Amino acid sequence: MGLLDDKVVLVNGGSQGVGAAIARAAVREGAVVAVSGRRPEPGEALVAELSAAGGEAVYVQADLADAEQAKASVAEVVDAYGRIDCLVNSAGLTSRGTLLDTTPELFDAHIAVNLKGPFFAMQAAVADMTARKAPGTIVNVITSSAHGGQPFLAPYVAAKAGLVGLTRNAAHAHRWDRIRINGLNIGWTATEGEDATQRAFHGAGDDWREQAAARLPMGKLGQPDEIADFVVFLLSERSGVVTGSVIDWDQNVLGGLD
Predict the structure, then answer these.
(1) Which residue positions in the chain have pLDDT lower than 70?
(2) Set 156, 157, 162, 232: catalytic member
């Protein structure tokens, strides 16, 4: 459909998982896509895949835990293409910690990746958009756990709940600039990172996805390609005037009780 024809899109945390799915969907819809990540190998492999399929894509080396690198990821895209039209913040740290056992170092790590990095990437992107007096769109990939979450996700929830508030604050601040900023509270999703987390922190075996799916209403975990299609819609003009929305993309209903 060409929903993102001639758009320059940066997907931070885009080298694997949901971010990689978003990069694929954006290229398919006509965008020029930059994917950032800490590790060159998966990022460069994804760019090679997208280029081989006829898309235009570049890899940007950036650790979103470092605010300067978060800003630099945007600057590199602007230097290469003269502008940034769309930003997706999909990097995330999900290491476990409760209120009682979380160290200051773990807390700071979550704030850095899940809140501080997106803040300064947004700052750089909005600065470019407003300097050019051009509209733009931003989507923050957040989590349904931002509503409260499990006890073992205390620092993750703290940081992601902050990103919910930031999404709404920035959307309100820049609505007259025609910059639309929305968020997606995604639920349990089948990604490479989630596989590693389940094995490392919960002793999961090879069949953990099947066991998890059997306990879910729709009989499956969230799928990265489905999330990606929704993100592309929010980035595109087809989502109209919507801004400041944080949408629950999940199969569990907040407030619903059995």
Answers:
(1) 1
(2) 156
